[in-house]
Amino acid sequence: MRMPHKAINKLGELERAVMDAVWQAGTEGRSPLSVRAVHDELSRSRDLAYTTVMTVMGRLSEAGLLTQERSGRAYLYAAADSREELTATTMRDQLSGMAAPDRRTAMLHFIGDATPEEIADLKAALAEVEQQHASRAGSTGGRGKDATP
């Protein structure tokens, strides 16, 4: 996965609306999209110039959040990563700049507001991660993933 230049939490209102439209189209199997398709979708709820949407989509492409492919005289756009992948990358970026005790504290505060269902999901995800780590350790003979024979 490419590291986007712009984190999801730093998107402006229109950028987020464009990304939401592109992500939604992707989940519905309507991706990639033209600027016209995104403009038509967004124009249902706000008055926007076509060129404004075109500029925003071009900038999102330059930032690595959208992919761009030529189709005749137009470009088609798709999300470079899913909403979930981009959110996870943003969270990792924020946490990676912290010292270990601060990361732990931040994660504990984050999950402190979790619902019982979210806690169950987290437990299942942690069990899956632990299983993956155990599998990797087993496949390298306990020497770690970077060990050489």
Automatic annotation (TrEMBL):
Q: Which organism is it from?
A: Pedococcus sp. KACC 23699
Q: What is this protein called?
A: BlaI/MecI/CopY family transcriptional regulator
Give the highest taxon in the source lineage: Bacteria
Which GO molecular-function terms appear in the entry?
A: DNA binding
Q: Which InterPro entries match?
A: BlaI_family, WH-like_DNA-bd_sf, WH_DNA-bd_sf
Q: Does the keyword Ribosomal protein apply?
A: no
**Keywords for this entry?**
DNA-binding, Transcription, Transcription regulation
One of the GO BP terms on file: negative regulation of DNA-templated transcription
Q: Name one Pfam family in it.
A: Penicillinase_R
Which family does the UniProt entry place this protein in?
Answer: Belongs to the BlaI transcriptional regulatory family.
Region annotation Disordered: where it falls in the sequence = 128-149
From the UniProt record, list the coiled-coil ranges: none
